[in-house]
Structure formats: C-alpha cells, structure tokens
Amino acid sequence: MSKKIASARITETSSQLLQELNNSLPFDKVLYREDIEGSRAHAFMLSEQGIISKDDYEKIENGLVEIYEEIESGKFKLDGDDEDIHMAIEVRLTEKIGDAGKRLHTARSRNDQVALDFRLFVQKNSQVIANLLLQNIETLIKVANKNITTLLPGMTHLQHAQPINFGYHMMAYASMFKRDYERFISSYERNNYSPIGCAALAGTPHTINRQTTSERLGFKEPTLNCLDTVSDRDFGLEILFNISTMMMHMSRLSEELILWSASEFRFITLSDKHATGSSIMPQKKNPDIPELLRGKTGRVNGNLISLLTVMKGLPLAYNKDMQEDKEGVFDSVKTALLSLQVLNEMIDEMQVNSENMEKACMIGHLSATDLADYLVKNVGIPFRDAYHITGNVVNVAETKGLDISELTLDDLQSVDARIDEGVVALLDNRASMNARQSEGGTSTIRTQEQIEKLTLWVASQR
Question: Which of 60, 128, 64 is nearest to 100 (CA)?
Fold first, then answer.
C-alpha cells in the first residue's frame, strides 16, 4: 500500500479517518497522463546523468508506457487505496519491474512531482481553452458579418438608447473573448517553466540536469527558485481567474440571449436542440443552455475564491493545505471546456429575427441624440441648450404617440424655429446608426472594419 512506501517515519497504522481525509486519488487521478509524462522525462534525465543505469531506465520507460496503456484501456483501475495518483503509479510500476521502479523517485519529491503534474495540466488546458475561444470568436464574427445592417436598439440601463447594428453588438462579445484568449496565452507563457528537480524545497545533491527535463516536457526553462517553485500555485489561480472572467463575459451574453428569446423581445430564436420544454406547460420553450451558463459562472467564481483563501496564509514551502488546489481547477476547466463548446454551437445555430429588432428601434426615440448633435454642429446652439430642446421634441413625440423619427418638420419647428429640414433625414434610425463613423463606432462601415481586423487577428493566432 502507498502509505508504506511514503511513511518511513510513521510507526503506527494511520487512522481510517486520516486516510479518508488524506486520500486525493479520487480526484487527482485525472493527472495520470501528466504524471507518467513527467516520470518518463525524469527517468530519462536520471539515466543521461548516470544516476540510474540504462537498463533500469529502459525498464522504467517500458513499464510507464505499459501502465499508461493499462489505464487508457481500463485494465488498471485507479480506485485502490493508494493515497494519490503518484503513489498509485509508482506502486504499479514497482509491481511490474521490481527494484528499478523504486529508483524512479531518486532526486525527486512528491512536492515537485505534483507541482509538475498540476502545471502540465494547467498549461495544456490553457491552450485548449484558448483554441475554443478562437472558435467562438470566429462564430461571432460570422453572425456579425451577416447582420452589419440589421438595426438593433442599443441600450444603457436596459433602456433603449441609440440605434446600433446587431453585427456591432456581436463584435462587442468577440472583443471580450479576444481579451480572454490573450489572458490564457499570456498565462501560458508566464508559467511555462519546469518545476521538476526542485525536490522537497531546496533542490537535490544529485547531479541532475533540469534543462534536460525542461526541454523534454516542452517548458521554456527550469524555474528559478526551488523554494518558491514547490509552493507556487499562481498558475492555478491564473487559470481560475481567466476562466472566471471568460465565464463572466459568457454570462453577460447568456443574459441577453435569454432576454432576446423572450416573447417581449423575440429578437432571436434558439434552435430546439438548445432549448427544453416544461414538465407541465406544453407550449413552453425554455432557454436552458444560457441559463445554465449564467449559473455556472457562480460556480467557477467560487472555485477561484476557494483557492485564493487556501493560499493566503501559507508559509513556505509546501503545506498539505495545497492538496485543496486541484479539485476547483479540475471542475472549472471541465466547466469551461463544455461551456465554450455548447455556446459556440448555440450561437452558430440561433435564428436572428431582424424584423423584430428593427421594429423595436421605433420605441424609445433612439435618434434623439442626433437632433442634439445636429443643432450643435449645424445651427451653433450650445450642447446643453440643444439637449433641452431635444427633450422638448421628445415630449411632443410622446404626446402624439410617435417616435421622434416619425415627426414632421412642422412638429420639430413647433419646439424651436431654428430646426431646419436638414435634420429630418438624420432622425431616421438607419441614418443615425450609420452616422456613427468614429473609429470603433456602430456604422456599417466601421463594423465591417472591426470584422476585418478581428478576422486577420484570428488568422494570425492559428
């Protein structure tokens, strides 16, 4: 049993309660690929440095490959009484190849071993999540490109504000996901350093070569300071923060999809594949996917806060508290991977109801700001005066039960005779949308420019 090979100082059998509290195999077994990968690199280095014999290395290498195949095939089930994945694999290796298996742990501690396995897991999944983000950006670009002339009420305070196009709105989320992608890539580069060879906390007297293991495992180079390395979980915190921020963006999009699919809006229709019915009301079509995505955001936020709390008071170096570092990360990574895939599919297949969007633009006097801007630019009226004049025009429209874009010149001049006929065309919602041609604005031309720039950027990341 693992407790025997890792407990030389302990003379009494561990309490059953301690074993249950201490056992991490039920969750850290997902690290078996990383553990075997790290052990193979470590064994290669030990052989290259003459610390173990070539014969022992070959036995270790072949044994680890066989164990990997056994786990993949289900022959070796990781559900025994070993306390963690590291001990489970080492015990199995020793069973298969004898004393050579006992030499694998030379110049290594579980402290740097677990730091390596966990870091490899985070690094790999940072790249996977980043690639899924690129797919989502491409899908948002595709939807945006089809809707650069589709009018949509732009809102502040969830109140109709100014006319924009739906493609522009989609590009806002694409821009958020771009920042999310950049965070994952930045974290990957910042954390791409190898912990293996740091041993318990102070390095090792064996003549190891950390450059060798670093290169074989795909790291940039070994970490600088071993004391920091075995206690560092910044990489775990970073991926949790990156996922939380990404899921926050996803939750905001989900909130809008939920609203837009409601009867009061009907701006979009989710495919039946991405909705559910009611157990009692046969007419219902519920937007469960965006609701679940919105809900899971709280879950990943909790995982981030949990690990921050675990780490906040720990002295250097390793402490057993740090066994709590992985479950939240595993859970958040799993949630992120599934969420990105389902969001991408849902957005790709949703129906955009452009007529309903455009009808909604006739509610709320969306082009009112254009009147105020016109009075400033073309008539020379100070903005604050133009602001109040426009407010009075809106009151006239409200009295008549019209949108400001439907008022006649006579209606406008009844408020202020200085308003001339040039303003009438500008109050049209489409004209208002296209008038916003400042860089980053909502005009069709500027939206197309944003699409082209982001498309080129995505291509540069492939």
Answer: 60
Amino acid at the residue 119:
R
Write down the catalytic residue from 157, 263, 279, 460. Answer: 157
d(CA 404, CA 394): 6
Provide the 8-state DSSP code for 292.
Answer: H
Residue 274 is a catalytic residue:
no
Specify the amino acid at residue 244.
S
Helix, strand or coil for residue 159?
Answer: strand
Instruction: Name the residue type at position 42.
Output: H
Q: From the candidates 186, 271, 278, 388, which is the catalytic residue?
A: 278
CA atoms of 158 and 361, how far apart (whole Å)? 14
One digit per residue, the tens of pLDDT, for the chain of length 462 reads 334 555 666 666 767 777 777 788 999 999 999 999 999 999 999 999 999 999 999 999 999 999 999 999 999 999 878 889 999 999 999 999 999 999 999 999 999 999 999 999 999 999 999 999 999 999 999 999 999 999 999 999 999 999 999 999 999 999 999 999 999 999 999 999 999 999 999 999 999 999 999 999 999 999 999 999 999 999 999 999 999 999 999 999 999 999 999 999 999 999 999 888 888 888 888 999 999 999 999 999 999 999 999 999 999 999 999 999 999 999 999 999 999 999 999 999 999 999 999 999 999 999 999 999 999 999 999 999 999 999 999 999 999 999 999 999 999 999 999 999 989 999 999 999 999 999 999 999 999 999 999 999 999 998
Angle 45-50-56 from CA coordinates, rounded to 5° = 80
How far apart are the C-alpha atoms of 452 and 165, rounded to whole Å?
Answer: 16
Q: What's 284's DSSP letter?
A: -
How many secondary structure helices (H) and strands (E) does the chain include? 21, 6
Contact (Cβ atoms closer than 8 angstroms) between residue 146 and residue 352: yes
Joined together, the tokens standing for residue 150 give: 């589709």
Q: What is the DSSP letter of 439?
A: T
First CA to last CA distance, the chain: 47
* Lookup result for tokens 């402490």: 319
What phi, psi does 337 have (nearest 5°)? Answer: -60, -45
**Does 42 participate in catalysis according to the annotation?**
no
